[in-house]
Every structure is written in C-alpha cells, then in structure tokens.
C-alpha cells in the first residue's frame, strides 16, 4: 500500500484487462475504486462481485476488496476525485457524453485510452473536452506508455508519460496512482503523447510480421528506429514535440507492444506473415486489434499533413489491400534508406 496518500474515491470507467489492472493498482494504493462497464459488458463486474476476480479479462488475479463494481454510472461517479477513462476509442464519445453530467465539478479526468478517432481524426482529449463542462476542460490529463496490464498487477516496474498543460491535475493523478512500481513522467506535450500512443500499434503489427517471417533482430532494430522517426515526423506536423516520439509514450510503448509475446497487434502481424487474411487473423486473435483502424487514420493524417511515411504505407497495404506480407516487406527492405 502506498502510505503517502490519503484515501480518495476514484472511478475507473472500463472493466477490460487494463481498466481492471488500473483499478487494482489504485486499490492497492489505499483508495476506494468504483469500477464501471457498459451494460453490454457487465459480466466482469458480476464476476468481481462474486469471485473477486475478473475471469473474463484478467483471470487468475485476486482483486482487492476496495474495488467496488458499479453497474450504474451515477453511483460509479459519485464523490469521485479522479475519473480514469479506459474504454476503446470508438466508444469514448458516447462514454464521455453519458458520464459528463455526473462528474464532480472539480474532478480530474484521466484518459488511458490510446487512439485517434477513426472518423474525425481527433485525439481522445479533444473529444473529451468537447463533451465536458467548461470548468472541467482544463482538468484533462492523458496517460500513455509501455504498460501491459498483466505485468502491472504483478507489480513489475512500469513507467508512463502523463501529459497535460495543468500541473495541478498531473500532481493529483501522480499522488493517486504512483507507488513503488508505478512511475508517471510529466510532459506538457499532450498531442505528442496521444499520437505516439495511437500509432505505435501500427508499427507493432510490422514487428509481428517480422516475427512471422523470421526476420533477424538486426533488421527489426533498424525498423524500430524507422517507425519512431515516422511517428516523430507526424507529431511535429501536428504541432507536438518531435522528441516525445523517443520517450516512454513513443519508443517505450512501441518496444512494449511490438516485442511482447502477449501483444495482440504483434500476434496479428505474425498471422498476416503466415499468410492468413486480415479477417482470419482477427478471428484467430479473438480481441480488438487497435492497429487495424489506426493504420487507416495514420495514412489519412499523413495525406492531410503532406507527409511521406513509407513504412506506414507498407503496413497499410498489407492490412487493408491484401498485399502479401513477405513480398511487401522484402521490397521495402530492398529500397529503404535507413
């Protein structure tokens, strides 16, 4: 337990593996945690109530009694000082609109969902600020970095970026969330953190393709550098700081997602390399592969900002245009200038 903090009421919206892992960290820090999920997915809440375990998303982890599953969003938000949003990007608009009228007037809103809206191409924090009261707009922070849920709940050291222009909001979230194994590194570059967090999934697919094709680590390492360079170019074009791409939210998260055995985006890439179609690969993984829609958003933003992102283009062609992974990758390696 983190003895530096006084107990607070905090809310986690989203009871998937990351939402549950985050709830466990906050509960172990001594806080009362209200955990909520959409009514199409209340099974995790019911399982936590009954077994103190989210068998659906985080099996085998005994959860803290300080985690209170709440099916009603009004109850979930009641008295909460920090609200963590851990829902898929495509449900964020709906979730924030649904939650906003019940959020306490001075609460901090922490976005843990990584991604850019597939249609509007807006970062999550932009969507959030449109749907909350004006007073809350300055209270939005974004958390992103290499964090595998299963590793967090087993107390492996995890460091992430926390981004906001509001230093007080950053301070409160750090106080609630940090402990001996969770570290948050502040930055004011919100757009950089959001862009990096969103698009590392695309390049993680490429790392999986490398694994499926038995491409050597020398080559993969060079491709990691190439990936981060392309993310950096986009961040700069969108008004962020290019060095954010080389920190925790960019390079750190790409290594975490691109090289982790359990990463869905990486596994998906491996399936593609073995000749399975995008649909078949998705069926084999059986969970959301964020990099699929992100690769589309990435190419749209590249066009909007007149950027040449050749590696992103290769991944897009393999995922969306049925280009054979082996041929596309070998052609790219033959002509890329590292």
Automatic annotation (TrEMBL):
<feature type="domain" description="Glycerol-3-phosphate dehydrogenase NAD-dependent N-terminal">
    <location>
        <begin position="10"/>
        <end position="169"/>
    </location>
</feature>
<feature type="binding site">
    <location>
        <begin position="14"/>
        <end position="19"/>
    </location>
    <ligand>
        <name>NAD(+)</name>
    </ligand>
</feature>
<dbReference type="GO" id="GO:0005829">
    <property type="term" value="C:cytosol"/>
</dbReference>
<dbReference type="InterPro" id="IPR008927">
    <property type="entry name" value="6-PGluconate_DH-like_C_sf"/>
</dbReference>
<protein>
    <recommendedName>
        <fullName>Glycerol-3-phosphate dehydrogenase [NAD(P)+]</fullName>
        <ecNumber>1.1.1.94</ecNumber>
    </recommendedName>
</protein>
<dbReference type="GO" id="GO:0051287">
    <property type="term" value="F:NAD binding"/>
</dbReference>
<comment type="pathway">
    <text>Membrane lipid metabolism; glycerophospholipid metabolism.</text>
</comment>
<dbReference type="Pfam" id="PF01210">
    <property type="entry name" value="NAD_Gly3P_dh_N"/>
</dbReference>
<feature type="binding site">
    <location>
        <position position="253"/>
    </location>
    <ligand>
        <name>sn-glycerol 3-phosphate</name>
    </ligand>
</feature>
<dbReference type="InterPro" id="IPR036291">
    <property type="entry name" value="NAD(P)-bd_dom_sf"/>
</dbReference>
<feature type="binding site">
    <location>
        <position position="149"/>
    </location>
    <ligand>
        <name>NAD(+)</name>
    </ligand>
</feature>
<dbReference type="GO" id="GO:0046167">
    <property type="term" value="P:glycerol-3-phosphate biosynthetic process"/>
</dbReference>
<dbReference type="Pfam" id="PF07479">
    <property type="entry name" value="NAD_Gly3P_dh_C"/>
</dbReference>
<feature type="binding site">
    <location>
        <position position="265"/>
    </location>
    <ligand>
        <name>sn-glycerol 3-phosphate</name>
    </ligand>
</feature>
<keyword id="KW-0443">Lipid metabolism</keyword>
<comment type="similarity">
    <text>Belongs to the NAD-dependent glycerol-3-phosphate dehydrogenase family.</text>
</comment>
<dbReference type="InterPro" id="IPR006168">
    <property type="entry name" value="G3P_DH_NAD-dep"/>
</dbReference>
<feature type="binding site">
    <location>
        <position position="145"/>
    </location>
    <ligand>
        <name>sn-glycerol 3-phosphate</name>
    </ligand>
</feature>
<feature type="binding site">
    <location>
        <position position="114"/>
    </location>
    <ligand>
        <name>sn-glycerol 3-phosphate</name>
    </ligand>
</feature>
<dbReference type="InterPro" id="IPR011128">
    <property type="entry name" value="G3P_DH_NAD-dep_N"/>
</dbReference>
<keyword id="KW-0444">Lipid biosynthesis</keyword>
<feature type="binding site">
    <location>
        <position position="264"/>
    </location>
    <ligand>
        <name>NADPH</name>
    </ligand>
</feature>
<keyword id="KW-0521">NADP</keyword>
<dbReference type="InterPro" id="IPR013328">
    <property type="entry name" value="6PGD_dom2"/>
</dbReference>
<comment type="function">
    <text>Catalyzes the reduction of the glycolytic intermediate dihydroxyacetone phosphate (DHAP) to sn-glycerol 3-phosphate (G3P), the key precursor for phospholipid synthesis.</text>
</comment>
<keyword id="KW-0963">Cytoplasm</keyword>
<feature type="binding site">
    <location>
        <position position="264"/>
    </location>
    <ligand>
        <name>NAD(+)</name>
    </ligand>
</feature>
<keyword id="KW-0547">Nucleotide-binding</keyword>
<feature type="binding site">
    <location>
        <position position="57"/>
    </location>
    <ligand>
        <name>NADPH</name>
    </ligand>
</feature>
<dbReference type="InterPro" id="IPR006109">
    <property type="entry name" value="G3P_DH_NAD-dep_C"/>
</dbReference>
<feature type="binding site">
    <location>
        <position position="200"/>
    </location>
    <ligand>
        <name>sn-glycerol 3-phosphate</name>
    </ligand>
</feature>
<keyword id="KW-0520">NAD</keyword>
<feature type="binding site">
    <location>
        <position position="290"/>
    </location>
    <ligand>
        <name>NADPH</name>
    </ligand>
</feature>
<keyword id="KW-1208">Phospholipid metabolism</keyword>
<feature type="binding site">
    <location>
        <begin position="264"/>
        <end position="265"/>
    </location>
    <ligand>
        <name>substrate</name>
    </ligand>
</feature>
<dbReference type="GO" id="GO:0005975">
    <property type="term" value="P:carbohydrate metabolic process"/>
</dbReference>
<dbReference type="GO" id="GO:0141153">
    <property type="term" value="F:glycerol-3-phosphate dehydrogenase (NADP+) activity"/>
</dbReference>
<feature type="binding site">
    <location>
        <position position="114"/>
    </location>
    <ligand>
        <name>NADPH</name>
    </ligand>
</feature>
<feature type="binding site">
    <location>
        <position position="263"/>
    </location>
    <ligand>
        <name>sn-glycerol 3-phosphate</name>
    </ligand>
</feature>
<dbReference type="GO" id="GO:0006650">
    <property type="term" value="P:glycerophospholipid metabolic process"/>
</dbReference>
<feature type="active site" description="Proton acceptor">
    <location>
        <position position="200"/>
    </location>
</feature>
<dbReference type="GO" id="GO:0008654">
    <property type="term" value="P:phospholipid biosynthetic process"/>
</dbReference>
